[in-house]
Amino acid sequence: MAEPSVVDYLHAPSKHRGPLSWILSTDHKRIGILYLVTMSFFFSVAVFLGFLLRLELLTPGKTIVDPQIYNELFTLHGMIMIFLFIIPGLPAVFGNFMLPILIGAKDVSFPRLNLLSWWLFLSGGILAVVSLFLPGGPVDTGWTFYIPYSVRTNTTVIPAMTAAFILGFSSILTGINFITTIHRMRAPGMSWFRMPLFVWSLYATGWIQILATPILGITLLLVIIERLFGVGIFDPSLGGDPVLYQHLFWIYSHPAVYIMILPGMGVVSEIIPVFARRTIFGYKFIAFSSIAIAFFGSLVWAHHMFTVGMSDTGQFIFSLLTFLVSIPSAIKIFNWVATMYKGSIALEVPLLYVLAFIVQFSIGGFTGMMLGALSINIHVQDTAFVVGHFHYVMFGGAGFAAIAAIHYWFPKMFGKMYNKRQAIIGWALLTFGFQVLYFPMFVMGYKGMPRRYYDYLPQFQIYHQISTVGSWIVVLGLLIVLHNLITALRKGERAEMNPWGGVTLEWTVPSPPPVENFVTVPTVTTGAYDYSRYEKKA
Amino acid sequence: MFSGASSFVEKTDAVLWFIVGLSAIVFVGIVVTMIYFVVHYSRKKNPHPTNIDGHLGLELTWTLIPLVLFMGMFYMGWSGYRDIRSVPDDAMVVRVTARMWQWSFEYPNGVQTDTLHAVIYTPMRLNLTSMDVNHSLYIPAFRIKKDVIPGRKNVMWFKAIERGAYDIACAEFCGLQHAYMYTKVIVDDTMSFNRWYAAVSEKQGKKYESLLTPKPVPADSESYQ
What we know:
heterodimer; A: 538 residues; Cytochrome C Oxidase, Chain A; 2 strands; 65% helix; 1% strand; B: 5-stranded mixed beta sheet
């Protein structure tokens, strides 16, 4: 199918050779792959740490490590998963690779800035790794760095925070790049309401990245100043207020969960129409719900702090807004399900992951309601219930969306197809293991099992053991997925230009795409999901 | 229906099961519909799709119905929370001091203990302070928790309605021995409590006076939130 005269981006000539032609490339597709590789590395490390955490909790008392190591393990698991995998995650990999193609552009607006973002990402990642080996030992504060503990511990808090600070800049620059690209680089005829919904979700995400991330940067800087120079900002022994730290931290970190999930929702909105062969149901409602989530999501941060002793007015408002912000998410779920109505559905691997996403994200949403209700929150805050909730949303939602995305776009990105049978086995293990791993956390959390506990009372053992067994199934599933994709890279069958029968622009270019994406710049004449050609001819 | 060790259990559990019940109905609805569509409109059975752009009525329905339900859930949660915040004036007052990694309870006559003793059906008010880092006093069986933060004066209260010994845990990560910062609250009847209180007062050389006749709240309690 591919025109032989066009060189694809994987084999494009470059002034550099070998690895340099990648790490110095300003091609958005190569940068996307760079992120994919670095992020897969960090993801694997964090999965391994999570695996060790669960193993430690298999029996009460010491199973494999001492409490200090355990505290470092859960801190690093959280930090790596959040700052090095799930926040950059979908936008940096699939946003970079697909965004320009989806809107008919040759690249992002600022290709060099884009490369700088990756270098910042890599530097932050390396600093985080180096900090593990500095005197003091790995940071043990939890990924939230709550004060005063984080100004008292002797572990390497400052390098770890500096790493998060640098990663923040990477995120801001990516956001700026995407927003500009979406405003300025759309192909002729690609009006706002003809854009694929993944692009809408990246647009909403970009604004959060730009507006919220600086607050994290400032906060981390203030902590570093406090630790180095003894200026009392947050530490009560210097006259500061530890609750102020929590407010500033969550003003960023709550919107950040929408940085994580919005692009995942965008991926789901791409995949369902393709495999149902019909147009998306309620395009504008899905598009605007992304914007609504970005807006309302910026106003609910203190629901992470319902037990700190805020004013009752504050509690009232933040609980109310928390319920309101869940409405746009509910709208999306209903529209996705409605998109399958009267479709012509092929149950391929990406759709299987999307179905699992809908199930898990719904459970995450419902348990979110329970957490948003004040009286329940007072009981389950800081318990395993919260851990279960955010893993259902972040892993069962955003994580599964990322795995759906790689299975969906893999043939386009690499021009190869993976083994579908093996992919389905991987999916089945992963989805089953996921429930075994995380569902018991809701039960033990409600029964009073606090989080970040090295040890536990005997009545919680059964739940911990079920959960640990689940972690083994999940790891096995992930290994099969990884093995399948790597095998496909090496000796997979050649993929067609449009293996799924999609109608968005990436399926109109060869697999893998040529360096400049389009031989001739496309002119767009229909909405993103025009599947009328598959309808029965009257 | 959901009675438990403290006066908060019934209401909190009722809100939980209300939301769980509603969620289960909606969840089953979503999953069954999804599976039905996937099977019924599979490409084999239905080779030609029908394109439907949307439906305003449906969109409004599934926006407004959740809105109403969510407001109901919000109100129930808020109403339970109001009780948790309404400290009775006649509550017995105990000062709680948290440090890495132990709890200390101080009764009005200066008696200090490392387990909390409470009287059944008698409201108990805890004035919370921390000596070092953030902690959180959590009594799962009572469905209550409050962070204990250095430099802040937080307050919590409960009324136990079943005799027994219940776990007190620390719920905010506080370092190496965080998972071992457990103690107990022992709920007894009036006579047993008085006997214990008299004995412990004598042992620590403090003057015994019954705590069960209402006393005015200590002057500085006003500043606790």
